[in-house]
């Protein structure tokens, strides 16, 4: 340890997504290669001398205590813990949550010393992993509200790779074996006999950590919600969700020094007749076991919705991934314009 193959893989993964800005301290981490990166992990991050770095990933993260603040993080998976190396701007992002972070080192702000805070989730404290729809994100749950983190990878490959690496590392943990399960048939294993309703698909790892995947009913619930937002314009049986993707809406900020663009996280849902943008709560659902009351907001909140037949053109940027798309709609105030046209023109 570390093998050449591992060092090469970690070096390849150590790239900040081009559309997201990070602080100088994280830019320094992103500039490290190979053995320098492993040495940095052991001298600055690792808590135990004999732990091994197994996987590195850059991702936006959300914390249960600060659900409105999405922050960029370098996620490091070792044989002992998951480390989230966070942008130092996050400490000041939400003043109401100041007790969540230790601010002892705030006197370093004005010096040339760049501070990053590191959030640690020990593998022994890990209880469950919820994988989001179409592997666009996953939520890691520990034993308290302080230990719930969602990684918004916005990429099924990154999610899949991390989950595979996490399962491999959890297999190394020595935990007391759970009692032998009673043999069950398929229906009693995955269905509730009282309601006949299929539960979310659960995989219980040998380390007793649950990996929970969404089932087909989540898509059905989402289709029903979308149909509600359409005010009954479409009958539900014919409504199909063609695409679900976590994206950013670009808001152009004029008057600033360089006319910068701010990125607003949005869930894009495409049906056969409409295009929707939702504000989605990625961290509160499904409710953790210790939650005493439901979250303050719904899982999906409609931000914008347009009919496909009003779509005039789609402009595509020429840059590499992530691709920028501009949807141009006909700006018609009254959507049912054709309804009374004959009366207006040819009536009395």
TrEMBL record:
Keyword Kinase: no
Residue ranges constituting the PLEKHM2 PH domain according to the UniProt record: 114-178
Domain Nischarin C-terminal PH: 241-347
BP-aspect Gene Ontology terms: Golgi organization; lysosome localization; regulation of protein localization
Keywords assigned by UniProt, alphabetized: Cytoplasm
Database matches in InterPro entries: PH_domain-containing_M2 (IPR053015), PH_NISCH_C (IPR057714), PH_PLEKHM2 (IPR057288)
A UniProt-annotated Pfam family: PH_PLEKHM2
Keyword presence, Cytoplasm: yes
One GO CC annotation: endosome membrane
Compartment list: Cytoplasm
GO molecular function, one term: kinesin binding
Endpoints of the signal sequence: none
Protein name, as recorded: NISCH protein
Source organism per UniProt: Orthonyx spaldingii
Lineage, top ranks: Eukaryota, Metazoa, Chordata, Craniata, Vertebrata
Gene: Nisch_1
């Amino acid at each position: 340890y570390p093998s050449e193959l591992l060092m090469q893989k970690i070096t390849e993964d150590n790239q900040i997504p081009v559309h997201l800005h990070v602080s100088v301290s994280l830019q320094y981490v992103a500039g490290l290669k190979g053995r320098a990166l492993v040495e940095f992990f052991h001298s600055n991050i690792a808590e135990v001398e004999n732990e091994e770095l197994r996987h590195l990933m850059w991702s936006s993260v959300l914390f249960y205590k600060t659900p409105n603040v999405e922050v960029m993080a370098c996620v490091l998976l070792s044989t002992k813990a998951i480390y989230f190396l966070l942008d130092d701007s996050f400490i000041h992002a939400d003043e109401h949550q100041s007790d969540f972070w230790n601010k002892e080192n705030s006197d370093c702000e004005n010096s040339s010393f760049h501070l990053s805070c590191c959030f640690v989730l020990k593998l022994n404290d890990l209880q469950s992993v919820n994988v989001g729809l179409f592997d666009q994100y996953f939520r890691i749950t520990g034993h308290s509200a302080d230990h719930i983190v969602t990684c918004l990878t916005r990429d099924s490959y990154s999610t899949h790779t991390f989950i595979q690496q996490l399962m491999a590392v959890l297999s190394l943990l020595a935990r007391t074996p759970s009692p032998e399960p009673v043999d069950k048939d398929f229906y009693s294993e995955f269905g509730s006999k009282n309601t006949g309703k299929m539960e979310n698909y659960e995989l219980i790892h040998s380390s007793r950590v649950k990996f929970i995947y969404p089932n087909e009913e989540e898509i059905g619930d989402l289709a029903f919600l979308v149909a509600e937002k359409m005010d009954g314009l479409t009958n539900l049986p014919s409504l199909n969700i063609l695409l679900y993707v976590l994206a950013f809406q670009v808001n152009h900020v004029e008057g600033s020094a360089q006319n910068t663009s701010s990125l607003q996280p949005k869930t894009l849902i495409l049906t056969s007749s409409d295009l929707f943008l939702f504000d989605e709560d990625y961290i509160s659902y499904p409710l953790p076991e210790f939650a005493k009351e439901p979250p303050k907001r719904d899982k999906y909140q409609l931000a914008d919705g347009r009919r496909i037949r009003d779509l005039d053109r789609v402009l595509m940027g020429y840059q590499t991934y992530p691709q920028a798309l501009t949807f141009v709609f006909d700006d018609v105030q009254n959507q049912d314009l054709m309804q009374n046209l004959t009366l207006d023109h040819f009536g009395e």
